[in-house]
# Entry
Amino acid sequence: MSLKELGELLKEAHQTLDRAKEAGERVPKEAERTIVEALQTLETYIRAGEHRIESKAQLGEQRIESTALAWDKHIETKKQNAEHCLESKIKDKTQRIESHMQDGIMRIQQVDTKTAHENYERGVAGL
# Structure
């Protein structure tokens, strides 16, 4: 092998080493870029997931509040209806008691009047 051929061979080997070095530097840079892109994509998905969770939580809170308010209103209506019903029944029973008392008083008065009249008749007959 001549010196010229050996020089060419060494030159080629040097170029091959340079290309290998460049390729070796390029691969980690590409890998780093790919990792950075993947991390950015993951961050985007995480933020989107957090946003969805937050939105659903807010919607759930609103539904709970709405349902609670509806039940509060329903319970208040039932309470008012029950109070009205009780007041009506109390009024009705009070009127019935008063009516029975009036009937009793009238019967007592009738008995007193009848007894007084009978006593008067006996007194007149005894004279």
Remarks:
- The chain has a mean pLDDT of 89.
- The helical segments are 3-126.
